[in-house]
TrEMBL record:
Gene3D superfamilies reported for this sequence: Trypsin-like serine proteases (2.40.10.10)
The name this protein goes by in its record: Chymotrypsin C
Signal peptide positions on this chain: 1-16
Domain of life: Eukaryota
UniProt keyword Hydrolase, yes or no: yes
InterPro entries recorded: Peptidase_S1_Elastase_sf (IPR050850), Peptidase_S1_PA (IPR009003), Peptidase_S1_PA_chymotrypsin (IPR043504), Peptidase_S1A (IPR001314), Trypsin_dom (IPR001254), TRYPSIN_HIS (IPR018114), TRYPSIN_SER (IPR033116)
One Pfam match: Trypsin
Statement: the UniProt record of this protein carries the keyword Disulfide bond: yes
Protein species of origin: Microcebus murinus
Keywords noted in UniProt: Disulfide bond, Hydrolase, Protease, Serine protease, Signal
Annotated GO biological process: intracellular calcium ion homeostasis; proteolysis
PANTHER family: CHYMOTRYPSIN-LIKE ELASTASE FAMILY MEMBER, ELASTASE 3 LIKE ISOFORM X1
Peptidase S1 domain ranges (all copies): 30-267
Any one GO molecular function term: serine-type endopeptidase activity
């Protein structure tokens, strides 16, 4: 029974995972910020929590099966009630055509999640029901286990995060080109240094285009040779100096490291991995003279 819950759903859409009905405009930006073509990233979800009777966007995520969403561990607070918005483009429109909201059944935070060192920043959300695929809702493909992307490989980050440092959260889904920064470069002392591990991937850092607060948990998307899109990273953290700080690329959890974990969680009947509360944003780092910032709202 190898990964039946996740893998069966993925195999069912093997011919169409990562293939949007509406093609993305690959010239748009996130911080600095053009809107994405509506529904061109149909696996992008909005993770929302209930406060004072109102649902509020906190993080992004990626639909990887008809009832599973991939997001960041630091997005999860076990004191909150969540729902997942699918098929969304404009968060200000509650009854947007082609969209729906689904309750959460179970949240699985990686058992080795370390909130201080930001290690294993990954969580899997099981939805309360399977969702039907459509032009506005699709699953993303997962990368090959252990795969690495080379320096400057073009990837795209998507989300409803702030349009600029300390700016407003975007109503409309944003996207931006984030070329991969290889491990040797990203771990240089004037970049992220030893904070970045080989379970992470860096992208961006040009001082112009970046993920920002509210983008956490969302996908780093790369187009494979066959034209389908894979979620190769999960937005984890950035610099507390600003969302688009030079030589401080956005740091993502590298999904290809966690394929076995995703399959194991998907195969378990009802695993009960612990949820941990988030730390405040920004988070001081004792390893650097600057702060790092969790990119949640």
């Amino acid at each position: 029974m190898l990964g039946i819950t996740v893998l069966t759903a993925l195999l069912a859409f093997a011919s169409s995972c990562g293939v949007p009905s509406i093609q993305p405009n690959l010239t748009a930006r996130v911080v600095g910020g053009d809107s994405a073509e509506p529904h061109s990233w149909p696996w992008q979800i909005s993770l929302q929590y209930l406060k004072d009777g109102t649902w509020r966007h906190t993080c992004g995520g990626t639909l990887i099966a008809s009832n599973f969403v991939l997001t960041a561990a630091h997005c999860i607070n076990n004191a909150l009630t969540y729902r997942v918005g699918l098929g969304k483009n404009n968060l200000a429109v509650e009854d947007e055509p082609g969209s729906l909201f689904v309750a959460v059944d179970t949240i699985h935070v990686h058992e080795k999640w370390n909130s201080f060192l930001v290690r294993n920043d990954i969580a899997l959300i099981k939805l309360a029901e399977h969702v039907e695929m459509s032009d506005t809702i699709q699953v993303a493909c997962l990368p090959e286990e252990g795969s690495l992307l080379p320096q400057d490989y073009p990837c795209y980050v998507t989300g409803w995060g702030r349009l600029w440092t300390n700016g407003p959260i975007s109503d409309e889904l944003q996207q931006g080109l984030q070329p991969v920064v290889d491990h040797a470069t990203c771990t240089q002392r004037d970049w992220w240094g030893s904070m970045v591990k080989d379970t992470m991937v860096c992208a961006g850092g040009d001082g112009v285009i970046s993920a920002c607060n509210g983008d956490s948990g969302g996908p780093l998307n790369r187009q494979a040779e066959n034209g389908s899109w894979e979620v190769v990273g999960i937005v984890s953290f950035g610099s507390g100096l600003g969302c688009n700080t030079l030589k401080k690329p956005t740091v993502f959890t590298r999904v290809s490291v966690y394929i076995d974990w995703i399959n194991q969680v998907g195969a378990a009947p009802r695993p009960s991995l612990r949820c941990q509360p988030r730390l405040p944003v920004p988070c001081p780092s004792l390893l650097h003279s600057f702060t790092r910032s969790r990119l949640c709202s």
